Amino acid sequence: MSDQPDFDHLDVDYDQFLPLLQGANDGLLAALATVPESGRVLDLACGVGEPAVTLARQRPDLRLTGIDISETQIEAARSRAAQLGNDGVRFEVMSMDALELDTGSVDAVMSRMGALMMGDPIRTVREAARVLVPGGRLTVAVWGTLDMHAAMRLGLRCLEAVLPAEQVPDLSVFDKLAAAGVREGILREAGLTAVDSRTLRWTFERADFESWWSFVLAIPGPMQDAFRRLGQDALGRARRTMAELAAPCRRRDGSYAFPMGCQLLSGRL
Predict the structure, then answer these.
(1) 184 with 197: CB under 8 angstroms?
(2) What CA–CA distance (Å, rounded) separates 59 from 91?
(3) Which letter does DSSP use for residue 189 in this model?
(4) What is the mean pLDDT of residues 73-91?
(5) How far is Cα 60 from Cα 192, in angstroms, rounded to an integer?
(6) What are the structural domain ranges in the chain?
(7) By its UniProt entry, which SUPFAM superfamilies does this protein fall under (predicted)?
(8) 3-state secondary structure of 240
(9) Which of 38, 95, 162, 186 could form a disulfide with 234 if both were Cys (CB 3.0 to 4.6 A apart)?
(10) Once rounded to an integer, what is the mean pLDDT over residues 23-46?
(11) pTM of the model as a whole
């Protein structure tokens, strides 16, 4: 995915994004239920260690390795893992497009919002296939079309309301990568079989409008950069636009429930 944020140098409270991804976590972890006892699991673009740490709590028998190119996020993941007291869990700085792992060394590969969206998707899946044992499975939860990501979709519409068209961030890559058959084709090209794709859906809740607006402004990447460049008048107009756009998701008690969705793809070596 182009214009990826530099996660090593962002002042971001990564934990605030974990509830946004809960539905993806649940679907991904359910798909990994068939990993054999004492199996070896690799988490690509593991970020701050979720859902890897949750998986380790559920299945302490597993030998789990999480990798990410961000030293900042790997340190956060290691801090989470230290609380487990499980020597079978480790996190390393490594590119998912050039894995420093032996061929046929893991039973399952997983990724949440990393593989098939960031880096080089074709190289990523080829590397995942290389390190899998025969019969091993790759399972990836990844953002689908922009319509499935309420925060990105509504945030983009706010920017469209206050910026000239040429200054609005181009997020079309969401729809291009999520087009029918594109990601499935990448898995098959890498030699994976029994390729499957389905949609996961869940609800992301916020206590009030201010917490929702603050959350949208905190999403790292080109959309956040555009919001930060706005003057006070334009930012105010964007905020009022968001209030109108979010109104259908407002509950009677003033809280909000936003529909979310992603793709869950899998394939077997």
Answers:
(1) yes
(2) 17
(3) H
(4) 93
(5) 28
(6) 12-268
(7) S-adenosyl-L-methionine-dependent methyltransferases (SSF53335)
(8) helix
(9) 162
(10) 95
(11) 0.90
